[in-house]
Automatic annotation (TrEMBL):
SMART domains in the record: AP2Ec
Annotated Xylose isomerase-like TIM barrel domain residues: 16-276
Binding, Zn(2+) 2: E142, D176, H213, E258
Known function: Endonuclease IV plays a role in DNA repair. It cleaves phosphodiester bonds at apurinic or apyrimidinic (AP) sites, generating a 3'-hydroxyl group and a 5'-terminal sugar phosphate.
Cofactor remark: Binds 3 Zn(2+) ions.
UniProt catalytic activity: Endonucleolytic cleavage to 5'-phosphooligonucleotide end-products
Key words, A-Z: DNA damage, DNA repair, Endonuclease, Hydrolase, Metal-binding, Nuclease, Zinc
Binding positions (Zn(2+) 3): H179, D226, H228
PROSITE patterns named in the record: AP_NUCLEASE_F2_3 (PS00731), AP_NUCLEASE_F2_4 (PS51432)
Sequence positions that bind Zn(2+) 1: H65, H105, E142
Top-level division of the source organism's lineage: Bacteria
Protein name: Probable endonuclease 4
InterPro entries, sorted: AP_endonuc_2, AP_endonuc_F2_Zn_BS, Xyl_isomerase-like_sf, Xyl_isomerase-like_TIM-brl
Length: 303
């Protein structure tokens, strides 16, 4: 199942028009205003409009992203409280809209230490899970690049949080290809892809992976820098994207493209990913041959 982050200027239902235009089977949106702490009320009419736009679209699953303002690992008591309350609102709103998954960054520990940060994240998620009656939406911890003091850049950290929360119905994982590469997992090439997935399976469990962010990375391996690139234009190479697209274990889980300039480039990047899925066998090793093969029918680089 393939899709991307869609623009929602003019209201959330507009996201489904982009999905139709770009042929997305899944989309990612924010269900609140992502840069603001205040969250305006939601009317029944808005919910109705969202659901009917969804029904009239090719979208099977909707993923929501928790705003970056939220930091559940923060040592600042006030920010931690606000973040917890916002996560509660995000989850409740996602439930009203019938959203399937809510992607969450595990947080940054700031001037404290990593273990205390992880404990605060766990405590906040625990509190939310006990208070929530939303049966529809599953929270997904995103694998992170490891920028600054962020947690969740190793499979062990993600596994630790999941084990402590111990509620597999309530929480799973969103695997971000650009982030794990920047975090130091080399997923370039078919063999490495399998090795990294085997490691993920041993430490976290592949059954916990509920969504994938398919992004190339402008940042180098192990740079701990979070810089997404268009598919085939970063450091990852095309092999991993072909492997993911063809991987029968992930056919039914949302694969979401999150690239810069999404308005201009989403359509051709989605087309490239679909094309990679159709190519049988491995891609040729030569970058030039790869480019020719990709360009041949469907893919035209419009940049
Ligand atoms: Zn991501």
């Amino acid at each position: 199942m393939l899709g991307c982050t869609v623009p929602t200027i003019g209201g959330l239902p507009k996201g489904f028009s982009w999905a139709r235009k770009w042929g997305c089977e899944c989309i990612q949106i924010y269900v609140t205003l992502s840069r603001r702490w205040d969250v305006p009320g939601l009317s029944e009419e808005e919910v109705f409009k969202f659901k009917s736009a969804w029904q009239d679209s090719p979208v099977k699953k909707v993923v929501a992203h928790v705003p970056y303002l939220v930091n559940l690992a923060s040592p600042d008591k006030n920010l931690w409280q606000k973040s917890k309350e916002r996560l509660r609102i995000e989850l409740s709103r996602a439930g009203q809209f019938g959203v399937n998954f809510l992607v969450l960054h595990p947080g940054s520990y700031g001037n404290s230490n990593k273990l205390d940060g992880m404990k605060r994240t766990i405590e906040a998620i625990h509190a939310i899970s006990n208070a929530s009656d939303n049966q529809k939406t599953q929270i997904l911890l995103e694998t992170m690049a490891g920028q600054g003091t962020s947690i969740g850049s190793t499979f062990e950290e993600i596994a630790y949080i999941l084990e402590e929360i111990n509620n597999p119905e309530f929480i799973g994982v969103c695997f971000d290809t650009a982030h794990i590469f920047a975090a130091g997992y080399d997923i370039r090439g078919y063999k490495n892809y399998e090795m990294v997935l085997t490691e993920f399976d041993e430490i976290i469990g592949l059954n916990k992976m509920k969504a994938i962010h398919v992004n190339d990375s402008r940042a180098n391996l192990g740079s701990r820098s979070d810089r997404h690139a268009c598919i085939g234009e970063g450091k990852l190479g095309l092999e991993i994207f072909q492997a993911i697209m063809k991987d029968t274990r992930f056919l039914t889980i949302p694969k979401i493209l999150e690239i810069p300039e999404r308005g201009k480039r989403s359509e051709d990047n989605l087309r490239l990913l679909r094309k990679l899925q159709l190519i049988s066998g491995h891609l040729p090793k030569s970058k030039n041959l790869q480019k020719q093969l990709i360009r041949k029918e469907l893919y035209v680089n419009i940049s």
